[in-house]
């Protein structure tokens, strides 16, 4: 085991988040290691999306810090971003581009230049829709266009906000299998979802629960 392998892939140290003068969570600490699949759960308004955005470095906590390999993400931004794949609850797909163009754009922005976009799209059952404008796709196809990049990434840390939205049961099962494969290969998955994950066992799935706080 190398020194890097012995470090926590991601950790939250005493995170506090305040939105509109309401404390969503405070003194929240946890560690995520390679191989972990973690579900952030809780009612609407509990701060699940806020927590994911803080973990991804898109929002700053009121207090506390996020650590990547034992170093604050504020001090290793470039290295962390290279090892991070974040998908928000909005698909982030441009309606005026085709499914293939959207995937091509997202992968090129992420630094990839050798890939077969059509082959990748086939993993999310979009064969035959590669040239369709995203604005003309169904909600499920729109979401799958965004999720396709999961099949072509070297990033170990996946942070996914409601990835199963508008996805059918078959698609959910395929995503769960991909999560397991990614974790088995040394990555980690942090996800929010209102759906039950039927393939990932309770023993394999870690849960972090946030409660709605009125004050």
Automatic annotation (TrEMBL):
Domain ABC transporter: 10-212
Keywords: ATP-binding, Cytochrome c-type biogenesis, Membrane, Nucleotide-binding, Translocase, Transport
Gene Ontology molecular-function annotations: ATP binding; ATP hydrolysis activity; transmembrane transporter activity
Gene Ontology annotations of biological process type: cytochrome complex assembly
Signal peptide: none
Pfam entry (one): ABC_tran
InterPro entries: AAA+_ATPase, ABC_transporter-like_ATP-bd, ABC_transptr_haem_export_CcmA, P-loop_NTPase
Protein name: Cytochrome C biogenesis protein CcmA
Organism: Shewanella mangrovi
């Amino acid at each position: 085991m190398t020194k890097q392998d012995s470090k926590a892939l991601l950790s939250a140290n005493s995170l506090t988040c305040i939105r509109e003068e309401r404390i969503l969570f405070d003194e929240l600490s946890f560690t995520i290691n390679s191989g972990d699949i973690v579900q952030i759960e809780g009612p609407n308004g509990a701060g699940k999306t806020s927590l994911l955005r803080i973990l991804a470095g898109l929002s700053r906590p009121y207090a506390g810090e996020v650590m990547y390999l034992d170093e604050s993400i504020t001090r290793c931004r470039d290295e962390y971003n290279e090892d991070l794949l974040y998908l928000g609850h909005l698909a982030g797909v441009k309606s005026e581009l085709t499914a293939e163009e959207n995937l091509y754009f997202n992968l090129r922005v992420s630094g990839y230049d050798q890939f077969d976009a059509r082959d990748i799209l086939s993993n999310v059952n979009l064969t035959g829709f590669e040239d369709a404008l995203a604005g003309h796709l169904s909600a499920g196809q729109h979401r799958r266009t965004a999720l396709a990049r999961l099949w072509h990434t070297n990033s170990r840390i996946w942070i996914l906000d409601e990835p199963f939205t508008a996805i059918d049961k078959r698609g959910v099962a395929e995503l769960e299998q991909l999560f397991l494969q990614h974790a088995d290969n040394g990555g980690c998955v942090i996800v929010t979802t209102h759906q039950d994950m039927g393939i990932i066992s309770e023993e394999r799935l870690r849960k972090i629960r946030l409660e709605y706080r009125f004050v």
